[in-house]
């Protein structure tokens, strides 16, 4: 049976409130969107080898030796690729490498002022409800949507989740995936795929997570900075993006129930997704 390798990471943050319950959504202290993404990699060893070779090549490049993030003691590019920390020359090289590999990203996007409205609704319905700062609640919800809507059939799965916070949540995330499978089996009477193995890992030890980070960074730049060029260049490596709060013309600009899916036939562009942000925020 075929084994599919998935690598899962996030972009943006889950922060809604600051000290004393002050709302931070809409300020420059937090992201406007929260995104989770799942990268499917056809040939993991080949990607790992190419990522390691590129990093070695860039570290030895005399034009980059003076760049602070290239020093081994900085704990950044010299150890692993991370789009936010890498200089433009490095980003360009990494994106070119990723275009050569058979990888596909699926993502789910949540606009945080809609998330804030959901939280306020929960608080009104249950006075004891509190939104937890760790953001695991919204993360798990988006992961369920990501794997529930964008599943595959007849394959074993190895899923590596980037560690959130100070420790892995392997058991909790495995439960999320198990619940999806049980729901599918209850509806259709059979399992959608073979056995699933869940791992938690750090990008420094995973080329798949580094690649996922790069594609999510391109997607985040589109949403947070109104910057389309990275997403446009890498769009062939995107399978689909589910935007839970995208306005649609048929609903007079209101979000569509279940979200809007962008894919090969319906690309994500500034024209097709009105209302993305344009603030000058470092990401």
List the helices and strands and how they pair.
Blueprint: E1 3-12, E2 33-41, H1 44-59, H2 88-98, E3 103-111, H3 112-125, H4 136-149, E4 156-162, H5 170-188, E5 196-201, H6 207-225, H7 229-234, E6 238-243, E7 260-263
Parallel strand pairs: 1-4, 3-6, 4-5
Antiparallel strand pairs: 1-2, 2-3, 6-7
Which spans have pLDDT < 50 for at least 5 consecutive residues? none
Task: Name the helix and strand elements from N-terminus to C-terminus, one letter apiece.
Answer: EEHHEHHEHEHHEE
Biggest sheet: strands, sense, closure? 7 strands, mixed
- Give the helix proportion (percent range): 25-40%
Give a brief description.
This protein has 283 residues and is α/β, with parallel strands linked by helices. It has 7 helices and 7 strands; from the N terminus they run E-E-H-H-E-H-H-E-H-E-H-H-E-E.
Features:
7 strands; 283 residues; alpha/beta; globular; Nucleotidyltransferase, domain 5
Description:
This protein folds into 2 domains: 3-42 and 102-263, Nucleotidyltransferase, domain 5 (2-Layer Sandwich), CATH 3.30.420; 44-101, no CATH class. The protein has 7 helices and 7 strands; from the N terminus they run E-E-H-H-E-H-H-E-H-E-H-H-E-E. It has helices at residues 44-59, 88-98, 112-125, 136-149, 170-188, 207-225, 229-234; strands at 3-12, 33-41, 103-111, 156-162, 196-201, 238-243, 260-263. The chain has a 7-stranded mixed beta sheet.
């Amino acid at each position: 049976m075929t084994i599919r390798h998935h690598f899962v990471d996030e972009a943006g943050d889950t922060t809604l409130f600051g000290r004393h319950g002050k709302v931070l959504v809409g300020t420059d202290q937090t992201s406007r969107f929260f995104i989770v993404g799942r990268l499917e990699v056809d040939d993991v060893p080949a990607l790992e080898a190419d990522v390691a070779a590129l990093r070695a090549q860039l570290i030895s490049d005399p034009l980059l030796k003076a760049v602070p993030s290239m020093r081994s003691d900085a704990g950044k590019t010299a150890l692993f690729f991370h789009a936010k920390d890498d200089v433009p020359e490095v980003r360009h090289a990494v994106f070119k490498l990723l275009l050569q590999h058979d990888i596909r990203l699926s993502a789910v996007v949540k606009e945080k002022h809609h998330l804030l409205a959901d939280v306020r609704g929960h608080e009104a319905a249950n006075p004891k409800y509190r939104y937890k700062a760790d953001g695991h609640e919204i993360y798990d919800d988006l992961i369920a949507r990501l794997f529930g809507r964008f599943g595959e059939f007849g394959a074993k799965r190895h899923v590596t989740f980037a560690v959130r916070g100070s420790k892995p949540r392997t058991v909790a995330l495995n439960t999320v995936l198990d619940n999806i499978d049980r729901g599918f089996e209850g509806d259709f009477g059979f399992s959608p795929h073979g056995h699933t193995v869940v791992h938690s890992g750090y990008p420094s030890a995973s080329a798949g997570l580094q690649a996922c980070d790069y594609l999510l960074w391109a997607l985040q730049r589109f949403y947070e900075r109104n910057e389309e060029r990275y997403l446009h260049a890498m769009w062939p490596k995107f399978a689909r993006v589910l935007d839970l709060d995208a306005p649609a013309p048929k609903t007079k600009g209101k979000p569509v129930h279940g979200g809007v899916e962008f894919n090969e036939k319906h690309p994500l562009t500034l024209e097709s997704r009105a209302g993305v942000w344009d603030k000058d925020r470092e990401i």
